[in-house]
Amino acid sequence: MSWGTELWDQYDNLSIHTNRGIEVLDKYANFLRDRVAIETEYAGKLRRLVKNYQPKKKEEEDNEFTSRQAFRNLLKEVGDLAGQREVVSETLQLQIIQGITLLSKTLREDRKKCLNDGTMLQQTLSAQLSALERAKRNYDKAYRDSEKAVENHKKADMDFNLSRAEVERYKNIMTSKIQQSDDAKNEYANQLQKTNNLQQQHYGILLPAVFNRLQELDEKRTRGIREFIIGAADVESSVAPIIARCMEGIVKAGESINEKEDSLKVIERYQSGFTPPPDIPFEDLSKMDSSIASNQSNYSNVTYNHMTIKGTISGPKFKKPRGGILNSIFGSNKNSLTADGQKEDYSDLPPNQQRKKLQAKIAELQHKVDQETNTRDGLMKMKIVYEANSSLGNPMTVEGQLNESEHELEKLKIDLKKYQGFLDKANQLQVVNNSPQSNRNQLQNGHRTSRHSNGSASADDHNDGDDQPDDAGSLSSSSASPESGLGTSHTSLPGSGQGSANENAIGEEACYETEVELSPSIGTCRALYPFEATSEGSIPMSEGEELQVIEIDQGDGWTRVRRANNSNGWDEGFVPTSYIICTLFA
User: What is the dihedral of CA 540, 543, 545, 546, to 10 degrees?
Assistant: First the structure.
């Protein structure tokens, strides 16, 4: 069905309909423009959001945490989302909106031509209908005039009072009027035939052609709206996989957060390597000489000696470290300071942090050395090429750059060697000892003693007048044996053992001896699992074995026990607390 045949008389309605259809197309174009503006604004705000929440330079050190890494990956994915919204905006603008604008312009021009053609056809038909109406009026007037002339001639012919000439005149008038009536009749018939032919052609061919063209234009507009709507959806669908991958990236970023790993990194970052201060000893003044009791009353400024193998306790000179404990830990202040106010060897930091800083500095210097080495090698190759073919360049121009590179490389190597020396020195101070008794220090009579596997307390012989540091006097940290799973870090301070490098002695040298007896048993325990002694100070045990408890766990995951031995009487040492079940005496 076509508009030309079915709507032959709806010229005005079709004109209104096609105009409204084009207005709908323009309205959809305006809708897309507003959407493009929203997409562009949304993308811009997303990018500003990502920029505002980017980690600051001072927060870069926190990027090692999985939560910070996940947030940084989240920002990256949100930035990618913003990019996809920009792609949607640009594609809608370039493909859809421009296409709609062009189609609307074409439709308006074609509609205008069609309406102009229809107007001309209507005007032509109206002119012909007017001509027919005039011919009809002329014919009607001529016919009445002829009828009147015939009636006048009849009257004149029957009137005997008129002359022959008068009658002849009426006859001539009648003949003329009849001729005029016939001519008007013929003209009317011609105009009528012409009008009918034009009207048939107008409503049968010409106007339907115009209406059919309007129908094509309207269908083209409707088809265009359909294609543009689908095209806009395709634009959105084209970025949907990328947006889905962005969402997957955000999910992966969230799943990558590991709270345990972050907790370990917090420990790694802030762990100082020191141990908590030991228990304050009970000072039984009734069992001490007044001089010894006086010296031990200020126990924080004295050093603890060791028990000798013979079972006696020798009291060295009580020495007060110069500059206090912190000075003896971190060393002298002769090192130059870095740009951030720290010492060059980072000796003002705790041991673990010092080694971490030094390792990072060494890695940085090594990277610079590698880069400078590559630069020097490139310059040397360039010089060789220039020397082989002077047309390519002057070798002397490279000589200066090569000398500068050699100088810079030598400087970097010196710095690298210096910091490696700092690290070696820091590692020497860090005496690693996994034996359980290195974690156990007991204060007896104001002195620190270490326990050994045979149950006796030992101390190194003190060299009179010698202040040579031993391992006990250096900064050391140790961890409990791995079998326990409960080990904690312990660190002894400088001056805590004999022979500490402290030069100002206070008080009198006091030496006394006392017999060391076996520690009393405070309970029994039964082994839940077999245990193989893999470190010094621990003793093996078999599942179900009964042992005597002589010291409970002090928080380091080890319990001191004792068993009867046929060879030397008793075996004494440490076992993992998690491997035994204890029953203490009331």
Answer: 100
pLDDT number for residue 357:
82
Round to whole Å and give the CA distance between 417 and 420: 5
> Angle, nearest 10°, between helix axes 98-158 and 11-52?
170
Tokens 């001191």 locate to 560
Q: Do residues 50 and 78 lie in contact, with contact meaning Cβ atoms separated by under 8 Å?
A: yes
**Amino acid present at 483:** E
pLDDT at 534 (0 to 100): 75
DSSP 555: S
pTM of the model: 0.50
SS3 389: coil
Q: How many residues does the chain have?
A: 586
List all residues 6 or more positions away from 224 whose beta carbon is below 8 Å from its beta carbon.
25, 99, 100, 103
- Nearest-angstrom CA–CA distance, 276 and 438: 14
Q: 3-class DSSP state for residue 443?
A: strand
Tokens of 461: 């012989």
Alpha carbons 137 and 140: distance in angstroms, whole number: 5
Q: Which residue has the tokens 């008068």?
A: 166
DSSP assignments along 334-359, one per residue: -SPB-TTS-BTT-TTS-HHHHHHHHH
Yes or no: say if 498 and 462 are a contact pair by the CB < 8 Å rule. Answer: yes
Contacts of 510 (CB under 8 A, 6+ apart): 289, 291, 292, 295, 315
The one-letter amino acid code at 60 reads: E
d(CA 240, CA 246): 10
**Which pLDDT belongs to residue 339?**
59
| pLDDT per residue as tens digits for the range 151-174 | 888 888 888 787 888 888 888 998
13 burial via Cβ count (<10 Å: 0-12, 13-18, 19+): exposed
The reported pLDDT for the residue numbered 84 is 94
pLDDT at 430: 56
Ramachandran assignment for 48, one of left (phi > 0), alpha (psi -120 to 50 degrees), beta (any other):
alpha
Q: Give residue 121's Cα distance to chain centre.
A: 70
Q: What is the pLDDT of residue 476?
A: 33
pLDDT number for residue 327 = 38
d(CA 375, CA 365): 15
In angstroms, rounded to a whole number, what is the distance separating the alpha carbons of residues 266 and 64? Answer: 10
Count of CB atoms situated within 10 Å of the CB of 212 = 15
Which pLDDT does position 237 carry in this prediction? 94
β pairing state of 546-551 and 558-565: antiparallel
Please identify every stretch of the chain with a pLDDT value under 70, giving residue numbers as ranges: 287-342, 429-517, 567-568
| 3-state SS assignment for residue 565 | strand
Amino acid symbol at 325: I
Task: Give the pLDDT score at 337.
Answer: 60
Q: Which 3 state secondary structure label does DSSP give 576?
A: strand
Tokens of 301: 């400024």
Query: For residues 478 and 275, is the Cβ–Cβ distance under 8 A?
Result: no
Find out whether 55 and 73 touch, Cβ atoms under 8 Å: no
φ, ψ at 273 (rounded to 5°)? 95, -5
Phi, psi of 547 (to 5 degrees): -135, 160
What's residue 314's pLDDT? 35
Give ∠ CA 82-83-89 in degrees, rounded to 5.
90
**Residue 340 backbone phi and psi in degrees, to 5:** -90, 15
